[in-house]
Write a structure and sequence with these properties.
Elements lengths: L5 H10 L13 H8 L3 H10 L5 H8 L8 H18 L14 E6 L5 E5 L10 H15 L8 E6 L17 H14 L4 E9 L1 H10 L5 H4 L2 E5 L39
Parallel strand pairs: 2-3, 3-4, 4-5
Antiparallel strand pairs: 1-2
Helix pairs in contact: 2-4, 3-4, 3-5, 6-7
Amino acid sequence: LGFIDEDDMSKLENERPGASMVVPKLKDDKEIAANYGIPLKSLQDLKQLIPECPAAELARFLAKRSVSGDVKKGAEKVHEYLAWLRDEVPKFPLSPPGFLPPFRFNGMAKDGSRLLLLIPCVLDPDVEPESYSHDLARSMIKELDRADTMRITVLADTRGHEALGYEGKPIWKLWWHVKALAWTFQSFFPERLQRFVIYPAGDVEMAAFRFAKALFSRETMKRVSAVHKKEGSFALAPPREILQYFELTEILKENQMFFAGLDDSVQ
């Protein structure tokens, strides 16, 4: 999805903001404003303008780089979001027959964020990109409380899973699908990303980063890590280094097949 090259990696490791613990149930406006790095007064002013929204939700839109705490810009973004929730989401068409969701929520990462497994190989180039962005939006709305300050850790498995019927696909075949997903995430779910972990990343996957880098802001890229493994997407098992982020017991039973090889109990 987004692959970080070796020159950028060491620099971003020291800058990435997604290293602190996630506290999902902040209620105090002062704590919420501090959590998102916005002025408390901006949050309080926006609450008066749009009282129907929880403080954490307002704070996330104020924290968007294009808003940067500006109350007027924040109000415009929130109204666009509310109109999307009210007028567009209920009209999303049903997923097409045989549709396989590429996103799978799991338990909790070690830092308190939610784990979201991404399996790009299940993306079908013949299925409209909007089908996947609609599925992502429905999953995010269902799984994340709007009033929470919860963030997510995305685990992006670059491998194909032929034994399960999923062939690996180069990113250029999925470009419009990735773009649609990135746009949905950044437009309607700002400040939900704690970190984005790509694995296993070999030479081919590192090179693919040049195709996807334009989709993400510099601030988003600070949250990206690539876990190297020489075989890249042809590796038979994920690299054990990803276990620094979560315990295998947090992976739901139906998703454990994607982690086979990390532990004898995961088949």
